[in-house]
């Protein structure tokens, strides 16, 4: 599908593709997929408009085990094709990673490819429940639990045993047929609009602070005279914020706190 879109003239292409596993059910068709995408411009003047959403091409999500590729957004862009080809080749060209020994080879390949320096700046993890709420088995019983919110986009069934997954999905089909209004919450009545605004704003501010940190560090290194301890603190702060932006941006509370903590270094 990506190759097909890229073969079209640019003005005829869709901008983004949304991928989801076969074991997902749409709960709320009132949620526009565009609501989750990065805005074209910085969400607020406080970010000094240095937020460059055009360089973001891959929007995955993560759980406690790391990246989960049950659902994700991928921009129609040559970078995306190169990234997918890298995912395919990685188990063969990096045998020391032992990707094929994982219980989920494909997901493990995505994890390693996403962590590579050439790719990280084009990837932003978004909150999982937006596009990948789970129904999973409780650890202490045969019961399952839905970890999303009423009004969320979909439910996904990762990790459920094959012999029980169908029963869980059938139960959801019955629930949606009997109580459609409960789950088809109007978009404006959900928390999605406020959450996405808060997320992209916090990320824009964090990236602005990161750029200021980098400039401050460069200035001190060029000017000389700065003690090694000060330079070390700046470098550590920059790397910590960079790591959160690249790998943990789905937790915008954490990114906001870290941004506030390191902002003093730029003043």
Tell me about the biggest sheet? 4 strands, mixed
Query: How are helices and strands ordered from N to C?
Result: HEEEEHHHHEEEHHHHH
Q: Considering DSSP H and I runs of 4 or more, what fraction of the residues is helical? A: 40-55%
> What is the β-strand count?
7
In terms of DSSP E residues, the strand content is: 5-15%
Amino-to-carboxy terminus distance = 48 Å
- Structure annotation, total helices: 10
Calculate Rg over CA atoms.
21 Å
Chain-wise SSE layout:
Elements: H1 2-6, E1 16-20, E2 24-26, E3 58-63, E4 66-75, H2 78-93, H3 105-114, H4 117-120, H5 128-131, E5 133-137, E6 144-146, E7 154-156, H6 162-178, H7 180-183, H8 192-223, H9 228-247, H10 252-263
Brief characterization of the structure:
By secondary structure, the protein is α+β, with helices and mostly antiparallel strands. The chain has helices at 2-6, 78-93, 105-114, 117-120, 128-131, 162-178, 180-183, 192-223, 228-247, 252-263, and strands spanning 16-20, 24-26, 58-63, 66-75, 133-137, 144-146, 154-156.
What does this structure look like?
- The chain is α+β, with helices and mostly antiparallel strands and 267 residues long.
- 46% of the residues lie in helices and 13% in strands.
- The chain has helices at residues 2-6, 78-93, 105-114, 117-120, 128-131, 162-178, 180-183, 192-223, 228-247, 252-263, and strands at residues 16-20, 24-26, 58-63, 66-75, 133-137, 144-146, 154-156.
- Strands 2-7-5-6 form a four-stranded mixed β-sheet. A three-stranded antiparallel β-sheet has the order 1-4-3, with helices on one face.
- Helix 2 crosses helix 3 (105-114), helix 8 packs parallel to helix 10 and helix 9 runs antiparallel to helix 10 (252-263).
- The radius of gyration is 21 Å and the shape is globular.
- The mean pLDDT is 88.
